[in-house]
Amino acid sequence: MIKRTKDYILENKMINNHSTVLVALSGGADSVCLLLLLNEIKRQCADELDFALEAVHVEHGIRGAESREDARFASDLCERLNIPCHVHFVDVPQYAASHGLGLEEAARILRYEAFEKEIEQNQDNSRQAVVAVAHHMEDNAETVLFQMLRGSGAKGLAGMHPVSVKNGVTYIRPLLSATRAQIEDYLKEKGQAFVTDATNTDTAYSRNKLRHDVFPLLLQINDRAIEHINESAGQLAVMNDFYEEQLKEACDSMVSKKEGRVILEISRFESLHPALKSGVARECIHLASGRLKDITSTHIGALVKLAGQQSGRKINLPYGIIAEKSFGEVILFAGRCDD
Fold this sequence. Notes:
Layout: H1 2-11, E1 19-24, H2 29-44, E2 51-59, H3 65-81, E3 85-89, H4 92-99, H5 103-122, E4 129-132, H6 137-149, H7 154-157, E5 163-166, E6 169-172, H8 180-190, H9 206-221, H10 225-254, E7 255-258, E8 261-265, H11 266-269, H12 274-289, H13 297-307, E9 314-317, E10 321-326, E11 329-334
Parallel strand pairs: 1-2, 1-4, 2-3, 4-6
Antiparallel strand pairs: 5-6, 7-8, 8-11, 9-10, 10-11
Helix pairs in contact: 1-2, 2-8, 4-5, 6-9, 6-10, 10-12, 12-13
């Protein structure tokens, strides 16, 4: 397990020498396993990976005494391992109520805010800091299936990346090469306890329903279903990286933004492959609105269709954006039309 994780870290260039790795430590099996593995890799493989190790625990304020006990467990574990532990106390129910969010979404937002604060504080040090999260194969398979059910495109179906950047923070996922069973076996071998969040078995949460109801059915059909989903996601990720490179080149050559208006040059746009047309149209809407949430294939298709229509035609797009065909261009700007 140690060698596989170390090799996966090196293969995906997750950790630079002389950096700081902050483990997102919930106290559950996955994050505890990740902390122990990184601590062993740090100790045994200093010639290949030289890094400082710390932990971050977020107490969400959802489960009362139980979650406070989880925070105590995380702190005690880190103290025993001589690893600095930073505990953040947040009020997820209050944040969810004041922002009109579900508990799951509110918890995710506040959790990432805590990570960002820790990274900001680490900027005073000479070491580069990254956050290590304990997503594994089942987590990735859940993401792929969840995105599929939502009608996601290739990017969503590519699942989680070994390394990703969000709001300027680099997140690494050293356990994406491991299954939950392998994680539990490692902890059993080490005699290491962990905490169990009761909400993980609540199938009212979509991801839990996938894990507890859907996965067992898939494994009955093929006992390597989880691995195969991860393999397919990895192949899609490689293809999507190539597509994103081509899309950037296309956008750079035919899309511009002037005085708050996004301008798409039609002559070049019309010669594109349909896959790139959709991507360029999506990026135009993104540039005009500043957001991608609620942008669907219907909106993208309408913009692609508009490019082939006569001059003067207009369509409404989300967030009060108008797209207008004007001779050799499609222009996107804020406003509403009555067409």
